[in-house]
Amino acid sequence: MKEKHSQTVRLNEVSADAVEQVLDFIYTGKIRLTVDNVNGIMKTASLLLVESLLDIISDFLVETLDPLSALHLRETSRLFSLHKLEEKVKECIVENFGVVSTQEKFIEISEADLRKYLSLDQISASEDDLVSCLLIWAKADLSKREERFLSLFKLIRLQHVSVEYLVDTLRNDPLVKGNQNCCDLIEKTMHFHSKPEGIKKQSKRRDTVEEIFMSATTTVEKITQPHVSHESAVVLHGDKLFFFGGYLNSNNNIATNSIISFDGREWKNEGNMIHMNSTHNYVTDKCNHWKNI
Fold first, then answer.
1. Which domains can be identified in the chain, with CATH numbers?
2. pLDDT of residue 1
3. Residue 2, CB-side half-sphere exposure with 13 Å CA sphere
4. Is the pLDDT of residue 3 over 50?
């Protein structure tokens, strides 16, 4: 390297301010990260191989992670080898796939990654959403992706696609109509809906169960305004209605993990689920024990 013959080392594409902050961290162990400075500091820390600072940056970015930023942070985690962040991003994408797949950057994911998502039982999206995002992804670069479309299409559990979407939209899609094997799969599925005997039933996704135990000592918070949600799971338990997750309004595409109850008089925040959910179902037994199905 030519730097070994010079008393000056140039760090291109990083700002003097970022270099100063990284050097301060090296000597003091302290750093102040913000959404405005984190990228510059991350680039500098990577160039200078300051692994301890990259770990701190990874933790910081995990705190900023949401379904709308997941694909961007996925690239960041791979570019800078932020393994903890990459794992958290994977979890976020799986738990919020219906939202993540609507983002513009989704069409840039690799076939291998899309195949992994479509193969998962625990993916958080309806089968309608999964086949829709597959069609959008394939058509974004049809000349290169059409050949692989059938193998990905076979991962869709067509028996759980809504009949309306299957008949009115999917069966008439030009990409599907142009592939005889896809047409055969749809016809077989339509036959299943009319006469399921003798046809193997496909399992639903999200077969794992999230259990929620509501104890008598659970601290609840009263809500002064009526709770309005969209696509929540609603369960009548005892003398209360419980609303699990859903969207806060019809224009919001990020689900919540809230558990709200109403006893005819008061609205209360009963706590939170582990995961954000929408368009799902809950059942309850005689105890305060809930299962996501």
1. 2-94 (3.30.710.10), 100-194 (1.25.40.420), 211-292 (no CATH)
2. 45
3. 2
4. no
Per-residue pLDDT at 6 = 53
Position 285 scores a pLDDT of 44
Average pLDDT, the chain: 83
E-strand spans in the chain? 211-213, 221-223, 233-237, 240-244, 256-262, 267-277, 282-284, 289-292
Tokens of 81: 């080898």
Contact 126, 102 (CB under 8 A): no
CB contact at 8 A, 156 and 205:
no
Residue with the larger pLDDT of the pair 285 and 179: 179
| pTM of the complete model | 0.66
Output the six-digit token pair for 43: 């680039």
Query: What is the DSSP annotation of 54-108?
Result: HHHHHHHHHHH--TTTHHHHHHHHHHTT-HHHHHHHHHHHHHTHHHHTTSGGGGG
Q: Write b or e for each residue in 171-180: b if 16 or more Cβ atoms lie within 10 A of its Cβ, otherwise e.
A: bebebbeebe
What is the rounded average pLDDT of the residues 6-22?
76
- Beta-carbon contacts of 257 under 8 Å, excluding residues fewer than 6 positions away, are 245, 272, 273, 274, 275, 276, 277
